[in-house]
Specification:
four-stranded antiparallel β-sheet; binds uracil; single chain; Transferase, Pyrimidine Nucleoside Phosphorylase, Chain A, domain 3; 442 residues; 15% strand; 16 helices
């Protein structure tokens, strides 16, 4: 078998055998296939797709490309959550403490930013001292002590996905259903979760641009879950505009803290609560509870401070620093470069998530190349969102960099141009967007 033949077979629309897929995965993991051939293969998959069998073989082979965690000695149902990627997605830092405050063990394995979307690992690393390197060997001890942990992908866990993920990010090969499904599900299977809740984002700022694609991705991941004996539930969420009002690592963490303190944005809370309900319902204790009951219980965890206390536990247990009020100490402070004001009266009819995500990357909040260092303070604050009334002279959005402008004025100008494209103001009223588009279960 050789890699060139595999690339040509996929390029011409052929279906790969399990042996061929295993050859590819072990070549990536063992670093015997050069990046140019891996990239060509990924591009061929993006264009030609993969059958259900190929996608499942790829997932299982990637899941077993390194260590597979066995969390069976930790009592209780271990439910993991993952998002297919979005802009302004600060769900995990809120959701994890809420679910953990019910006494449910939460082992969350997250990723870094990919393309124009942000990554949870990058966000947590904006907290001084926070380490996302948790070796699978210490999962049990950490969970027993604190009830939750947030890990990045260690060298040993699904190493093939780790390598492909970084390469896809810089070769335009992210938005492919088989590649996204196998990437997510391989990590979840290797991470040892008993059940998985997926936030399948849909819209301009997601990899799935429309509902049909989002449903196809959901069904693909549910079918992989069935084969791997893990119940999967998918919540379809809108990503036409960013979630919440802040995009960028520190800005988003600050906004997440607002929700945990009970005064967050409605759209953020709606998405978090929908996912929390799905996670709780996966456990025997809450499987028969209604959405209304579970939402009330989750809200009570916020108002009582129980969820915030869990967030503090999480930060401290992973080396992060908190100030005397329990707020994390961040590695930098966002610096407002400029605020843009409305030039007319009207209603916001577009705040395009893709454009905002790209603008945020240009400001330094994401990576353009594999080796780029993120500016944790960079990002965008959205003062107005779709459906909101705006009066001439009111602030629409503000651009931020870290305390040092690491990108230069030309990139700031480019970001501003993207933001100008992102926003539309119409004379007639527009409806606010619906955050939850549906739920697809096993
Ligand atoms: N999240 C992942 O873990 N992988 C993808 O490919 C996309 C989103």
């Amino acid at each position: 078998m050789n890699m060139l033949e595999l690339i040509e077979k996929k390029r011409d629309g052929g279906a790969l055998t399990r042996e061929e897929i295993e050859f590819f995965v072990s070549g990536v993991t063992g670093k015997t296939i050069p990046d140019y051939q891996i990239s060509a293969f990924l591009m061929a998959v993006l264009w030609r797709g993969m059958s259900d069998e190929e996608t499942t073989d790829l997932t299982l082979s990637m899941a077993h490309s390194g260590d597979v965690c066995d969390l069976s000695s930790i009592p209780g149902m271990k439910v993991d959550k993952h998002s297919t990627g979005g802009v302004g997605d600060k769900v995990t830092p809120i959701l994890l403490p809420i679910v953990s405050s019910f006494g449910i063990p939460c082992v969350k394995l997250s990723g870094r930013g990919l393309g124009f979307t942000g990554g949870t690992i990058d966000k947590f690393e904006s907290i001084e001292g926070f380490s996302t390197t948790v070796e699978p060997g210490s999962f049990k001890e950490k969970i027993e002590k604190y009830g939750l942990l947030l890990g990045g992908q260690t060298e040993g866990l699904a190493p093939c996905d780790k390598y492909l993920y970084a390469l896809r990010d810089v070769t335009g090969t992210v938005p492919s259903i088989p590649l996204i499904a196998s990437s997510i599900m391989s990590k979840k299977i290797a991470g040892g979760a008993d059940a998985i809740v997926l936030d399948v984002t849909c819209g301009s700022g997601a990899f799935m641009k429309d509902r049909t694609q989002a449903e196809a991705l959901s069904r693909q991941m549910i079918s992989i879950g069935k084969l791997a004996n893990r119940p999967v539930s998918c919540v379809l969420t809108s990503m036409e505009q960013p979630l919440g009002r802040n995009v960028g690592n520190i800005l988003e963490m600050q906004e997440a803290l607002d929700t945990l303190r009970g005064h967050g944005q409605k759209d953020v809370e709606t998405v978090v609560l929908a996912l929390a309900c799905e996670m709780l319902r996966m456990t025997p204790e809450y499987k028969d509870h209604s959405d209304a009951e579970l939402q009330a219980l989750c809200k009570e965890k916020i108002t009582s401070g129980a969820a915030f206390a869990k967030f503090e536990d999480l930060v401290l247990s992973q080396g992060g620093k908190l100030d005397s009020s329990g707020s994390p100490i961040f590695v930098d402070e966002p610096f407002e470069v400029m605020t843009v004001f409305a030039d007319r009266d009207g209603y916001v009819s577009s705040c395009d998530a893709l454009m905002v995500g790209e603008a945020s990357c240009l400001l330094g909040a994401g990576r353009m190349e594999k080796t780029d260092v993120i500016d944790m303070g960079a990002g965008i604050r959205l003062q107005k969102k779709i459906g909101e009334k705006v009066t001439r002279g009111e602030p629409l959005y503000s651009l931020y960099t870290g305390s040092q402008n690491t990108v230069g004025d030309e990139r700031i100008d480019e970001a501003l141009a993207k933001m100008q494209q992102a926003y539309r103001i119409s004379e007639t009223p527009c409806e606010a967007l619906q955050e939850i588009l549906g739920v697809i279960r096993d």
